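Table S2 (continued). Query chain:
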Amino acid sequence: MKALLLKETNQPLAFDDCPEPEAGPGQVIVDLKAAALNRRDFWITQGMYPGVQAPCILGSDGAGVASATGQEVIICPSIDWGDDPAAQQESYRILGMPDHGTFAERIAVAEGQVAAKPAHLSWAEAAALPLAGLTAFRALFTQGRLQSGQTVLVTGIGGGVATFALQFAVAAGAKVLVTSSSAGKIERAVACGAIAGANYREDGWAKALGQAHGPIDLVIDSAGGDGYNDLMEIVKAGGRIVNYGATTGPPRKLDLFKLFWKQLHLIGSTMGSPAEFASMVGFVNERKIKPIVDQIAPLAEGSEVVAAMAASPQFGKLVLEIGG
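Corresponding output:
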């Protein structure tokens, strides 16, 4: 079969022939129709992800047909979460490194990793859902405890998780604010249901946004960095800040006085459990949410699409088309 193979870091992915997967005990073969990219794939190619092993077929998101039954399915990328819903166990890992992933014509996964594809979604939309949708769902509802009528700020709008957080929060009846350095991305977010946005590169953005649209109950962030103190400033007393990443690194200085004086809750979040995946899929089905797909390209062009993620040009998900 054809697949996109990481042979070494800092080199293009190879579109190459790979051995056909074989189903082990409790596994199913899925003939993939589409796979979606995540920022994780880019970091792996750059050697900036822990535990990189090569050769490996990348890709955490996929949708296709279970070969034995003909059922249309999507794949949960969480592997071996464990029994504690509060946090993953030490052996937890994400599909697509070190296990072979979805940038291939076929894949073998555990029976418990597949769920029925939402009928209202195209193959590309279905493939876009799993990793980013699950990450956003846990950050918003499990860790962030978002309720209808509350106000949530989603930073860095345009990325896959942030875009799902916007869609899910709007569907849940929340008021959504966004940040971006791109006026175009803010405009698109407003068209998708956000009430307002701010350019985080402008001085005083947090104070102005908070005064105009606060109080802000919850912040969903993946950046961290020195802008983190702005988030501590903008969120209300007793509010929550949930981080599912730290793409700009740790803040050089954390205002601990603000942390305890405002009674803030700083919360970490990573992907999600199989139970949360099932809840997320149910939520998408019930609310008829359609993932935002920015671009669809053939699997053979996947290496170029991964490389283009360096500039973060997209709004929504990048998807690779595999089957007809």
